[in-house]
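Technical note accompanying the year-one report. For the benefit of new consortium partners, we illustrate the data format agreed upon in the data management plan: each record pairs a sequence with a structure-token string. No post-processing was applied to the example shown here.
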Amino acid sequence: MKYLNSKKVVLTTLPNEGQAIQWQTPEYFLPSTSKYVPLGLLSLATNLPERHQVIILDPASRGWSIDDTIERIEAEKPDIVGISATTFKTYPLVQMLKKLNAPYKVVGGPHITHYADLVLQQGADAVFRGPLADKEFADAIDRKPVGVIDCHTKINDITFPNRDNVDNEFYYATGNMFKSNKRMSMFSGVGCPNRCTFCDVQVKIPTRKRPADVVREMKYLQSIGAGEVHIYEDNFNTDRKYLEEICLEIERQKLTMDWCGRGHAIMDLDIAKRLRQYGLKRIGVGFESLHNPTLAFYRKPQSYNTIAKFCNTMHKAGIDMVGYFIVGAPTETTDYREHMGEMIWNLGIKYPLVNILQPFPNTELYTNMLKDGTYKQDYWDEYIVRPTPSFKLPFPYGEKKWQEDVDLVNKLIKYFEDKRTNG
């Protein structure tokens, strides 16, 4: 059916070609088969008026180059191109803005929070600043405003993403640590109340979808083939009342399926058992360290004893844990590093994902490294203003320390592979 005033809209992620090097996560934990469904773009598409034609492209997951991506966009002859951008992908962003011939080019995503004016100078017609931009983007399709558009879309004023625009089987989750059953992802909220020094999560007041809508979306994903659901939220378990309402909705809507989410290391046994009863199979937790001085360095709102109590609770409730850890802080001791694997295993954490500490732009960690002279120049600012392909932030503590951290991560990978195989 043809509509009056219909626009053709291409929404796209950025290709990986030329992106800044993320040396914090070893390739073992990011296999080439890992793909991330572009939930933000799907949400924008779902909440546009029906009269518009929307094409979603995901060069990041498809492995397309910058030129491949531009060629595919130009072949669609779009009226509007919307790009989702992260700071690590400043180089491909600038290349695409420079080369695309679309009449109206707009950019959103976390990169815009700090660099809205710069992205306009680099070739965007408009930028959308804010955690959610669905309402403002829908309004912009016809009006085509220019400049910075501050966004105030509320999470409960939009419809959850329809998946008709993507190949859902292509995005079934895979990995090296455990098997999943046609796992599909969704988000239940945005924001994290914690203020960890290394973290670049920009929204500090969590807002969440209504529990009834969360469960409706889970049922929708099940209806289109999902065997389990992963709920993206930085800390889904910070509000006990909310968790109780999720359980009630799962019972009310008669949902039966496994699901998992990300949370923090605080949960009482009663609600943990209820969540397990209603399908919570696995929780991912940013423990980061089991060493109290290092937890303080990261400003984590927990201690080793807090973590140990939480792990015991998960064990009693029958919930598996994926533990996110960081190595490389200057506060770590030789003794802690030598016994780190054993300490993690003894807490019942079978699936640790270990990163090497990498200072991200606009984090307290990076700012402090500039202030104390660890970094003599602002490498991130230089890259963002004049991006070069495959920029790599220098490791702050020297080559010897870098190799020690790499060796430790590899040692931990082998340790846990052996443990999971042989016990």
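Partners are asked to follow this layout when depositing records. The longest strand covers residues 280-288.
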